[in-house]
Hints:
The complex is a heterodimer of chains A (309) and B (234).
Chain A: H1 3-37, H2 44-62, H3 66-94, H4 100-122, E1 137-139, H5 140-143, E2 152-154, H6 155-177, H7 179-189, H8 191-196, H9 201-223, H10 233-248, H11 253-273, H12 279-293, H13 297-306
Antiparallel strand pairs in A: 1-2
Chain B: E1 2-11, E2 14-24, E3 29-33, H1 40-47, E4 55-60, E5 63-64, H2 73-76, E6 78-81, H3 93-100, H4 104-108, H5 110-120, H6 122-126, H7 137-149, E7 155-159, H8 167-182, E8 186-191, H9 194-200, E9 203-208, E10 211-217, H10 218-223, H11 225-232
Parallel strand pairs in B: 3-8, 3-9, 6-7, 7-8
Antiparallel strand pairs in B: 1-2, 1-4, 4-5, 9-10
Amino acid sequence: MDAVQVEVLLQTLIAGILLGGLYALIGIGMTLIMGVMKIINLAHGELMMVAMYLAYWLFVLFNIDPYLSVFIAAPLMFFFGMAIQKYLINPVLKVESILPENQVILTVGIGMVLANLATILFTSDYRSVPVEYASDAWYLSDFWRDSPVELSLSVPWSISFLFAVVITVALWFFLTRTDTGKSIRATAQDMDAAVLMGVNVERMRLITFGLGAALVGAAGCLFIPIYYLYPALGGRFTLIAFVITILGGLGSTVGAIIGGLILGIFESLTATYVGMGWAPVGRFAIFIAALIFLPGGVASILRRQRLGK
Amino acid sequence: MLKVKDIDVFYGDVQVIWGVSFHVKKKEIVSLIGANGAGKSTILKTISGLLRPASGEVLFEGRPIHTIKPFKLIEMGIVHVPEARRLFVEMTVEENLDMGSLKAEAKKRREQTKEMVFELFPRLKERRRQIAGTLSGGEQQMLAIGRGLMSLPRLMMFDEPSLGLAPILVKEIFNVIKRIRDEGTTVLIVEQNVKQTLSIADRAYVLENGRIVMEGTGEEMLRNEHVKTAYLGV
Ligand SMILES: Nc1ncnc2c1ncn2[C@@H]1O[C@H](COP(=O)(O)OP(=O)(O)OP(=O)(O)O)[C@@H](O)[C@H]1O
Ligand SMILES: [Mg+2]
């Protein structure tokens, strides 16, 4: 490999990790919901789309920076998620004749309604937010003049990634250090036992759906400076979240983080070495590979290690 | 303290508990014995609200509890140590104990109670950061009991705490249960290990096919011919 090839590879890996960090945030939200409610939320990407439009209009109307919008959109999405859980999913959950599959279908319906509403309200135009720092970058040679390779780091991508890391760490603290966080994990592991310990499982469901929506909403705001926006983008990100959830192992947060990074790096590699348009194919390939070779996802490897089996 | 009055319990259309009544007085150890499938676990689940009686009542200190939300029972001082332990297997020993002390009153004294549990089961202290799923069967049962104790219960219900344990551990668990009662907690215990249970129980009820067929003090039961042939294998 000559210097240029090394540069390309490193640059591709950096891009993959940055993308993977954001993917992880999207995947964690879905996997949390999966763990506690035992359903796949197929409206996940659409929830992200809603948050993105929020951030978009906050920028256009009030000139609020998308990174600042994280603090507005995430709490709003938290309440939006809780409302969906309370008024749409819970009533269906209570009807015994309805199979869990139907709750999944319900989430598909919610996603479709959101996507269509967005199209009616905002048209299907592609939009992007013209932040000033959109194309700023740091260069390795600015810091290390004699560096044998030249690498660049996009400013907005880096900020988005850092935000994703901070949010993920905060979530980890919440899940492991607070009673509410522990109760959420306990509900996912054994619902009846959680009830016996005094956990209000219905409340945990609400909080979890809210949290999942807030996380994917935050991810949406973080995508705004680096991505474009259109009503149908939700479906694509639902699929991404789904692949990450399968790759990571249903319900596993650590699995989702690793799954997100794997997918980000893999997509970045496909885009560089196969072609820009091939990323979805790569995504599909890794999905199938995970289903065949690693049915329990990354989580099954982690578990095996921890349980010493 | 606890009064179960004429309850019928169904799984779907299938009735498994038929007009069962019994009571537990303060600071007693009361035991329900019966063969596999007699309905022992079903009764405990009904008391703790995981199942609802189709008819009849469950009263705790005179108040009906079969109508309140199940997660609120622990606040009233009732805790159920379920069959097969039902630990949070991916959490650490200490996190499991934290889960036992969610209610405000117990949370305030969490660290104190934890020390008490560790004193009762020193092995748990050594393993406080270990994932519960990796504990041995005996340690898991200790943790299940410890988790229950964390809620500072006034009535503690055990569902087959000796299941799958070596004889020496069974003895230890029964000693602990006796000690728990001696320190002021009322105990309702469901067991197949009939001999040991009857020897610590103040009173016992025999459950057959979802009906109570006999009751008496622990000693009376140990001497009873029917109990001897059916449950003690003499
Ligand atoms: N979830 C369920 N659905 C349908 N039937 C059930 C269910 N759980 C238990 N049963 C039935 O109810 C009856 C009583 O079960 P229960 O678990 O209360 O028995 P048990 O006395 O605790 O037995 P064991 O000693 O084996 O634990 C059994 O016939 C069992 O098959
Ligand atoms: Mg049982």
